[in-house]
Structures are given as C-alpha cells and as structure tokens.
Amino acid sequence: MESFEQLAIQYDPMIQRIIYSLHIYKNKDEFLQHGLIALWKASKRFDPARNYSTYAYYYIKGYLLMELTKLTMEAERVIYPKDEFWENAVAPYSE
User: What is the pLDDT of residue 80?
Assistant: First the structure.
C-alpha cells in the first residue's frame, strides 16, 4: 500500500465530494480532518481482495455520518444561553 501522504493527496477530492454530498457547510475543516482519519483507518483495515476506492468511499462516508450524528446529539443535549442571559446575570458576591 502507498504511504498515507500519497493516499491523502489522492483521496482528498473524494473526501471533499462526500462532505459536499452530506451538505456539511459548518466546520468543514473539522470534517475534512475526520475524513482523513477515516481514510487512515480504512487503509489499516483494508482487505486486499476488495476494491480500495469503493471501500474507502463507504468507510469515509459512514465515519462522517457517525460524526454528524454525534454533533447533532450533543447539540440537542446542551443548551447555550443567549447573550441577553449573560448581560442580565448578576454576580453572586457583589459588594
């Protein structure tokens, strides 16, 4: 198998296309990094009897879908107060 740097250059357009097809527009750099991690994991788990391009495509897409699910679940669990809350908050120990 080729070195990972060569794989990353070769499969970067594929990762970009998967990100585009999943309609990811926030945190693109973060998802590009996740795509590279998935590519690395796919290269380690690859069975030479299979077609690597197809295997890598589905592995990367599945990995990115898992990351999207994690981020969505986290966003649903965590509530971030609006700026008005912080403006109206009073310090507990004011003198």
Answer: 73
For 17, phi and psi rounded to 5 degrees?
-70, -40
CA distances 90 to 4, 80, 81, 83, 84, Å, are: 53, 18, 15, 14, 12
Task: Kindly report the pTM of this predicted structure.
Answer: 0.76
CATH of domain 4-76: 1.10.1740.10
Give the closest residue to 56 by CA, choosing from 77, 70, 86, 35: 35
For residues 26 and 67, is the Cβ–Cβ distance under 8 A?
Answer: no
Contacts of 45 (CB under 8 A, 6+ apart): 59
